[in-house]
Design a protein that fits this description.
Keywords: Glycoprotein, Glycosyltransferase, Golgi apparatus, Membrane, Signal-anchor, Transferase, Transmembrane, Transmembrane helix. Belongs to the glycosyltransferase 10 family. The protein has 13 helices and ten strands. It has 342 residues and is α/β, with parallel strands linked by helices. Strands 5-4-6-8-9 form a five-stranded parallel β-sheet. It has a three-stranded parallel β-sheet with strand order 1-2-3, with helices on one face. Helix 4 packs across helix 7. The two termini are 24 Å apart.
Length: 342
């Protein structure tokens, strides 16, 4: 029997217990810890046999879930020439920030607020707003609108700050500026260097000790066309040199906004069904370990969802509550010893 769980809606108390030896549990969770902290607690994630998450260590990795393919990265459709951007600097800040979720685990607004004391930032959205979008572009549905893209494309730099700091958690906040020909100033995945189109395609906040230092570097690029151009040279030439990124896009079994390919949910369900069916056939043949073959029992790696919660004091208490709740519910049901679970 297979039990498939969607991460955002997952509730520990709803697990199908008692769990039999032949019961497989599968988890699909494309989001960050913000959507369900419990799943990033080791004793919980290791309950699952099959996983599809943003981590490259998942059985079906979704790391590139926000990237359609290499062509959108190479496309010059929205690119504004540097000469025009320099002219637009008379009315625009060098940096733009667009966020409406103002209390994520990464606490990104605190960093941006400090950065704004050292360099000008045009901030749209609900967080730290100092500039308004046209009325028709207000709301999440407009975030992929051509008119919204054209506004962002006028800027030299975009603050691309994730809502959580997790290895391989890379969202549209990173890919969008690359598509538009704008240099992302990135804060989020510690493993982001593994996913850059080229070695010099983004400015990484982690490489600067203080917002003041980052602001100074951005001003330097803003005033030196040659230095700035080096960050978009890969796009102008249409050259993506990162083989890990190219391989991940080429080998994934699903597509993004592509009717010719399965979506990642269908691909995960098919993968799980294939694995389970393979094991059933092995069991039917009564293949023993003496033959060199046996039933393959997969399990989530205990620490594959690597996330930092240094900025969010509330997370620790969320986990403590989840742990206590899980232990107490298991005790009430008498299905599993809570000592063995947590």
């Amino acid at each position: 029997m297979v039990s498939l769980h969607q991460g955002t809606d997952f509730n520990i108390d709803s697990l199908p217990l008692p769990r039999k030896a032949h019961h497989d549990w599968a988890l699909f969770h494309e989001e960050s810890p913000k959507n369900n902290y419990k799943l990033f607690h080791q004793p919980v994630i290791t309950l699952f046999n099959y996983t599809a998450t943003f981590s490259r260590h998942s059985h079906l990795p979704l790391t590139t879930q926000y990237l359609e393919g290499t062509e959108v990265l190479k496309s010059l459709r929205y690119l504004v020439p540097l000469q025009s951007k320099n002219h637009l600097r008379k009315s625009l800040a060098p940096l733009v920030y667009v966020q409406s979720d103002c209390d994520p685990p990464s606490d990104r607004d605190s960093y941006v607020r400090e950065l704004m004391t050292y360099i000008e930032v045009d901030s749209y959205g609900e967080c730290l707003r100092n500039k308004a979008l046209p009325q028709q572009l207000n709301g999440p549905a407009s975030m992929d609108a051509g008119d919204f893209y054209r506004i962002l494309a006028q800027y030299k730099f975009i603050l691309a700050f994730e809502n959580a700091v997790c290895d391989d958690y890379v969202t549209e906040k990173f890919w969008r500026p690359l598509k538009l020909g704008v240099v992302p100033v990135y804060y989020g995945s510690p493993s982001i260097a593994d996913w850059l189109p080229s070695n010099r395609s983004a400015i990484l906040v982690s490489e600067f000790s203080h917002p003041r230092e980052l602001a100074s570097y951005i001003r330097q690029l803003d005033h030196d066309d040659r230095l700035y151009q080096a960050y978009i040279e890969w796009k102008l030439k249409g050259e993506i040199s990162n083989q890990r990124l190219l391989t991940a896009l080429r080998e994934r079994k699903w597509g993004v906004q592509d009717i010719k390919q399965d979506n990642y949910i269908d691909a995960f369900e098919c993968m799980v069904c294939t694995k389970v069916w393979d094991n059933i056939r092995l069991q039917e043949k009564q293949v023993s370990y003496l033959t060199g073959c046996c039933v393959e029992r997969l399990m989530a790696v205990k620490d594959f969802l690597q996330c930092s919660f240094l900025f969010s004091a509330s997370v620790r208490f969320t986990w403590i509550f989840s742990k206590t709740d899980f232990q107490s519910s298991m005790t009430r049901r008498g299905d599993i010893s809570p000592v063995n679970v947590m």
